[in-house]
Each structure stands twice: as structure tokens, then as C-alpha cells.
Amino acid sequence: MESKESGKKALEAYWSNSISEDELHAQLKEIRLNHLRKQKKKQAIDVIPVGDFTYYDHILDASVMFGLIPKRYDYSGGPVSIDTYFAMARGNAEAPACEMTKWYNTNYHYIVPELQDTTPTVTENRLVTLYKEAKDELGIEGKPVLIGPYSFLKLAKHYDLSQTEDWLKQLTVVYSQVLRELEEAGVLWVQLDEPSLVTNVTDEEMAYVKDIYETLHADVPNLQIIVQTYFDAVENYDQVVELPVAGIGLDFVHDGGKNLHAIQTKGFPGDKVLAAGVIDGRNIWKAKVVDKLALLEQVKQVVKTPEKLWIQPSSSLLHTPVTVQNEPELDSVLKRALSFADEKLIEVVTLKELLYSDQSADHTAIRENQQLFKDIEATGWRKQEPNTEPFSEVSRTASYEQRRPKQLEKWNLPILPTTTIGSFPQTKEVRRLRAQVKKGSITEEDYKTQINDYISTWIKHQEEIGLDVLVHGEFERNDMVEFFGERLEGFAFTKNAWVQSYGSRGVKPPIIYGDVRFKQPMTVEETVYAQSLTSKPVKGMLTGPVTILNWSFERDDLPKFQVAFQIAEAIKEEVSALENAGIEMIQIDEPALREGLPLKEQDWKTYLDWAVHAFRLSSSHVQDTTQIHTHMCYSEFQDIIDAIRALDADVISIETSRSQGDILSTFEENTYELGIGLGVYDIHSPRVPSEEEMSTILNRALKVLPVERFWVNPDCGLKTRKEEETIAALKLMVNAAKHARKQVATTSS
Are 627 and 538 in contact (CB under 8 A)? Predict the structure, then answer.
């Protein structure tokens, strides 16, 4: 995201009707051109991508370019209006938004293409426009970037899998048209991103991929196409490198050494470019120059022609902040150790210069880099050594079936109890209040008084709405991960290091630079105050260890599971503090557990074993009557249903509405014995759904899940919504639950 969030401001100004469409285009164009100027002049990048700048999401851009517009948006052909584009992303008064889910194993969310009742056709070739813009206005011979046809289909939904081959053929036709028009415009190189080639690819699918690229090559034989992969090692290496394209991009950071092993043992075609991703595109630590040069030397032994070896980040820099230069308050050693997007491009250029020049240890860049890592070691931040010993199992003292009757007696809730996921609207006034106390312009006492006023107001709102289990609203929290990191040892924080989560929504991931430790209670005061205002239960709200890890920039000198266990021990202390203060319904959110799942199925078990262990380490020590909740959102949960069960949370809430109830098919095929709440409305859209829509999801859920264990809740927290939207939607949700209770009572009698 732009470091000063000017793109975010432009989008939100347009959505609030504060600027015109022309003004929106003009403001975003200037940001787009500034990105290109920077790469040309400041970083001296040889091949600069174009078409990767997006108004909301790059997969949505592709869907729109190919005319894949669901019927509910009343699209009748031709160029797609900006309002239809945003309606697909955010919904509008007439139609809900398209589904949004996680981009592979990252915290970025993409808009899922919906293919039913659509036929691909090129509506407008935005890549030609953007290529010409870069060339005409900045003199840049750009490399247009587009998601590849195989990965696009793998990311899509709502088509019959038996029609995969037919869909790929249809997509190949429109891709050919786009590429022909690019070739006619004078484009030399085009990058087609195929990250799905690093997942488990069947022989049949690989045959489809071969057919796609043979067709594209036949249609545009003179256009140089590079197939880019990232996030892991490619499957079917032999077949991928033999595709009839001019180059292959491989990730040499997140591949576990497999891509390097493949090129060393199987070779690499001499007529192709190898785009070697050697600088980590997903984390923010400077690379050890000597180690990267050693890696590149091994690659150079295979790719001997300098022009055929491109050096680049391991993936798009979408996942990193813009520049370290915007962080003047960071510790000096830590700041020197960091590399954001701007700095990573400098690292790439430096490696190229060193690789083909004198690499003696006397070189300034190498010497300074080696001193940096000595300085980090001297700080004493990182005392725990890497440990690969197996971990012992932890569990609750009683099984769920033994705990459940005790909890039913203690809480005495109605069937289909209603609750929310945690946060309530973070208004400008709330954000201003936090900024004031941070700057010292108001006292800590005044700040707490005003936060308590917000808590009191929303406890009253929740009681008036008729919710059964309440929350304090999280008004004191800037972000569900940053808040906890600020109160634990081992975390550092930035002022301007924004990373896009979806659309205009950005996050500032904490930096885990050292050993993580609990210092003092973090959430007890506000939660206990909220509970003092009501006779209804108030949930304690915590973020789980795996989510804190996956939504932070973690240290790279320890295995991830070891860092997760450090965080889990700290969260365990907070759970105990809440329980000791009388808060015995505690939600430990793990929305990022699924996103950390490795892309290859054979690697899942190792990850899930330690992720489940981390959650249980933080939660298994509580009393039988203490009810542990957890929450997950926007992911393919059917892949991890057994791990969800193994968490042994008394209640789990899961996103359902935006995926149009797709996860319900998982429960139609699998028994789930614990408490569960499936979100009945989408909180990422300003649209207030009807009671009927919520009832539809609720009624379908009750056909496959036991009513006595079912909870009713929104999809996610409500911090991004306005107060009036929130109250209106929650009232309808409670009404839907009440009607469902009556139906259950009627059926039972």
C-alpha cells in the first residue's frame, strides 16, 4: 500500500461520494506512475512490471477484463463500469459482494471469480492501456503482468469440475486475444503468474497446462512469455520447464531447497530465462548477502549466460510495506536489519552487481551486511536456540462431552444463542482518542474514562438488540494482532508500514524480532468493566498464537513452530488472568490458522500438528466450566476440518455468508460434535442483508448441524462498519434467530 495511504483515501472518498470518478482515476494514476518512476530511477530495475497496480484486487481485474460478471449485477456486455467493479468487491443495495478468500497461504484476500452462467469475453484490454501509459509518459518498456489461465481457474468457483477442460479452452481463447493485442502494441515480454503450479498438480491438469501454453505459443509465437511461480517449489518440474515459453520464474526462498535441487540435478533449458526469486518477497529481514551470493553461484553454474539469469524477489512485493525510510523511531539496529519493498529492490540490484563483479569480503556491501548480523547477535534479543525436538501433547482435563453439561448449567443460554465476533465500529472519534493518548495530549485517566464510555454505550446497544452473549467492543485496540504485540516482549511496531489485506483495508503487521514473553495482563481491565455493566456473559477476547505469528513479520532464525509456542505460553498467561478475574467465557481467535497451511498436501500434517498444539497450549489449562471459543474467517475450511475439531474449542465461529454457504457442504459430509456458529451475514460489505437472507443460511445450517450446539453470529468483527449499519444488521440477525427458535419449538412439539 502507498506509504501515506493516499490510494486508500482516494477509494474511500469515491465510495462516500466525496470525489468524482474522474478524480478517482486521476489520483490513482499518479500513484501508479510514481511506483513506476521509483523503479526506473531510484532502484534501476531492468524489467519493470506494469498492470500489477489495482483499484481493489488483481484477480477481480482479470474477472472484469474477461467479462465474468455474475448475473446479479445486471451486466449487459461491453466495458465494465467502475461501480459494477466495486459492487462485485463490496456489494451494493441490490446484490451481495462476490466471495472473498485468502490468496494461497498469505493474509491477502482476493475476490473469487464466479463462473456460473458466464462466458469469457474480452471487455477491455487494460494491459494494453497500462503498457502504453508507462511507455508514452515515462519511457518504460514495461512487462505486463496477468494471472495465468490455469491458476485463474483454480482460484475460481461455481463451475462443474467435470467441465475443467472446457473452461480452460474458453479461457485460452480470451488469453490469446489479450496477448495478441499486447504483441500488436509492441510488448516484448509478458508475465503470466501461475502460483497454482506449486500446489499438488495432477497429471491430467498438467496436460491441460501444456495444451494451454502450446496454444498460446502458436497464437503469439514472437511474444516472450514468462511463466512465474512462487510461494513453494514447482510440481512437475520437468514438464513446467519444457513449456513453450521464453522464461520460467522460480522461488528459491520458500521452496525448501527443492527448486535448486531440481535445476542442479535435472538442468534448465538453455534457451529460456530463469527468473530466480532469491530475495524474500514475504518477510522484511535483510538477506545475508554472502548466503544469497552462494545460492546464485550455484544457480549460475546451471544458467551460464548472464542475460538468461534474472534476479528478483521470490514473489510480488504486495506482501511487504513500502519503505523502511518512513520509520524514524525504530531501534537503529533493528531498522538496519529491515528490508521493505523499496529496499528489497535495492538488494536485488546489489546482488546482480556483486554476482558479476569482484565478490571479495572487502566489498563494502558485503562487509556492512556481515557487521549488521554481528550487531543483531550482540543485542541479546534472541537467546532461544533453534529446537527440533518433538513436543508433548496437551489437552483439557475433561472431554467436550464431559464439559458440556457443566457449561450448559453454568451459562443457561437459550437454544441458538446469539453473539458477535468481538469488535464494534471504530469511528473517527475512537481512532482520534487512541491517537491523542499516544501523543500525550490527553491523560491516561481521561483516555480510560472515554473508552469506558464507549464500552458502556455498546453494552447497552447489545442488550437492547437482544444478544445473548456480549463483548466489550475492543475500542482500545488498534488491530487484533498489533494490540497484543505491543504488550508482549519481543515485538516491535512501525508507524507507516502498511500492507494491503483487501481493497482499501491495510494492516501494519508487528515485527517479531526477539524472544516473546508475557509481561502483564492485557485485556482484563476493559473486559471486567464490561461484565460489571450487565448480567449477561461478556466474552474475553484474545488473538490466538498462530494468528499472531502468521499476521506478523516473524523472525527468521527460528522454526515458525518455536515462535508460535513462545506466543502460546504468553496467551496462556492472559487466559489465566481473565479466568482469575471471573471472565469464564474466553474467545481465542485463530482466523489465520488455515492461511498458514502449506500449499502441498503432503506438508499439511506437520503444520497442523504444531498449530493445534499451540492453540491447546494457550487454552487447555482452564476449568471445565470455562467455555473456550475460537473464530476463523475467509478460508477453505473443508481442508482442515479434522484440525478444527482437534483444537477442542467448546465453540467455533466460522465465516459462511460470503462464501454463500459453501462450507455447509463440509458439514453435510462430516459430523462435527462441538459447538459451532456459522456467520449469517457478511461484515466486509456496507450492505445490510435482509432477515430472509440470514434465515436462509441459518435454516440450511440447521439441517446438518445439531440445533442444541449451534450459535448465531456475523461472519467477523464489526470494526470497519458504521454504527447504524451494525445495529440494523444485528437486530435482523437476532430476529432471524428468534424465528428459528420458534420453528424448532414447533417442530419439537
Answer: no
Phi, psi at 513, each rounded to 5°: -105, -15
End-to-end alpha carbon distance in the chain: 57
Residues of 132-158 as b/e, b for ≥16 C-beta within 10 angstroms?
Answer: ebbbeebebebbbbbbbbbbbbbbbeb
Going along the chain from its start, the domains and CATH numbers come out as: 43-245 (3.20.20.210), 246-254+267-287+304-377 (no CATH), 416-748 (3.20.20.210)
Q: Is the Cβ–Cβ distance between 276 and 349 less than 8 Å? A: no
pTM: 0.89
- Does residue 461 have an active-site annotation? no
Local structure of residue 104 (DSSP, 8 states): T
Catalytic residue chosen out of the listed positions 254, 319, 629, 684: 684
- Helix/strand/coil for 587: strand
Q: Which residues contact 96 (CB under 8 A, 6 or more apart)?
A: 72, 657, 658, 682, 685, 687, 689, 693
Per-10-residue mean pLDDT, the chain, length 749? 69 96 96 94 89 96 98 94 97 91 91 95 97 97 98 95 95 98 98 98 97 98 98 97 98 97 98 98 96 97 96 96 94 97 95 83 85 95 81 92 96 96 90 91 94 96 97 92 94 93 90 96 97 98 97 94 96 98 97 91 95 97 97 74 93 76 71 87 83 90 90 90 93 96 84
